[in-house]
Amino acid sequence: RGRMGSRLRAAWLTGKTRPMEYRVAQLEALGRFLDEKKQDILEATSLDMSKVRGRGKAQGALRRLQHLDPASGRHVEKNLVTQLDSAFIRKDPYGVVLIIAPWNYPIHLLLVPLIGAIAAGNCVIIKPSETTKNTEKLVAEALPCYLDKDCYAVVTAGVEETTKLLENKFDYIFFTGSPTVGRIIMTAAAKHLTPVTLELGGKNPCYVSDNCEVHNVARRVAWGRFFNAGQTCIAPDYILCSVEMQDKLMPALREAITEFYGPNPKESPDFARIVGDKQFRRIQALLGSGRVAIGGQTDEQERYIAPTVLADVKASDPAMQEEIFGPILPIVVVANMDEAIDFINARPRPLALYVFSCDNKVVKEVLERTSSGGFCGNDTLMHVTLTSLPFGGIGNSGLGKYHGKFTFDTFTHHRSCLHRNMGLEAINCPRYPPYNQQKLGLLTSGSLALALVPVGVSGVG
Ligand SMILES: *[C@@H]1O[C@H](CO)[C@@H](O)[C@H](O)[C@H]1NC(C)=O
Prior knowledge:
Blueprint: H1 2-14, H2 20-36, H3 38-49, H4 57-66, E1 74-75, E2 86-93, E3 96-100, H5 108-119, E4 123-127, H6 133-146, E5 152-154, H7 159-165, E6 172-176, H8 179-191, E7 196-199, E8 205-208, H9 214-226, E9 238-241, H10 243-261, H11 277-284, E10 291-294, E11 298-299, E12 304-305, E13 308-311, E14 328-333, H12 337-345, E15 352-356, H13 360-369, E16 374-377, E17 398-399, H14 405-410, E18 412-419, H15 437-445
Parallel strand pairs: 3-4, 3-6, 4-5, 6-7, 8-9, 8-15, 9-14, 13-14, 15-16
Antiparallel strand pairs: 1-2, 2-18, 7-17, 10-13, 11-12
Helix pairs in contact: 2-4, 3-6, 4-5, 9-10
The protein binds 2-acetamido-2-deoxy-beta-D-glucopyranose.
């Protein structure tokens, strides 16, 4: 493993990953991996989580990034004394970066950052999740056949080996996972002052105001909550609404669930399973919160948990103490919007916040008076389908952002550059000692920044 690190470091120092053509060629190779291994990827992910539909989103990102010219510097405004010079921001790669992917979307959440890291010109160490064994194996075996082995490597590692891996110095770490592990990553990164992006989770509130068309609300919330059996970091985690709305919503949610997954969701090819036994038992224990109004059935053998709605859940119940990350939707009754806002603000900042209301003012007010990584009014999940919007958390839900061009920026160091003209030395004279009143006058009145005057020089106010 140490050898792998030094191989990538050496490749980085040759500058091999910098030319545009090289980056495009590697991205194209990644595209071939997706095309040729499509069936294997679908099989591996469905073995890991009974996933039913693949997604080809990464290819879109790839096409888009190919149109960027990474290394072209952006010229910026100049002051009077740099008029003859060239001032620009250069988009440099960081160097050797580490990407740690999660298990809930084991391919997608690995490839999207990887594409950005390659496009930005970095060498990359990729660590797929050890929880999704089949996908991990596929990535470890197949991906290196497509990418340049000098510059890109896949490591397979459990907790212990990952801890070891993190002792190495990286130039950037991109992590997707839980806030708990996020803290461990950031602590390890701090040792080397390595910058990080942390894509974490949290409990995403969904406030449903009284004047709503319940059938549409129910469908949009049920879709967001039960997608991938709730194992989605931006899923609505719980509903906040009045007791009247809870009564109206319940039959509508039951209808939506039946419409999506049939009378027995266990038989639906569109309803996923829980990823592992540990996770299954954790989620199952949350079923004791409030009262089971819909669903509640489980099958440990299959790691199946039915789409479940819990009514009258209290803030002190187990389901409200942790991110659910499973197909359970608790409803917490609040008196009104103000109480919902207080409830949200009394807790760690979520990755996503959802509000449903026929009254635009309600949506706007909740947006105005709360804080979250992202926000979607009148729907769930849909804001992340826009690659024009940066995706990321705030506070407990993460640090940094990506998607679309923001992924490229995340893996890019914006280097400030000034190329000066060697002539016209007269312009520079006032900044050189010895100082006199005339020079200081020029310095302080002119466009030369005060910063050029040494601290403690007399006559400068
Ligand atoms: C939410 O949907 C309702 C009903 O269609 C609409 O009147 C309202 O403007 C929407 N709110 C926002 C913020 O788009």
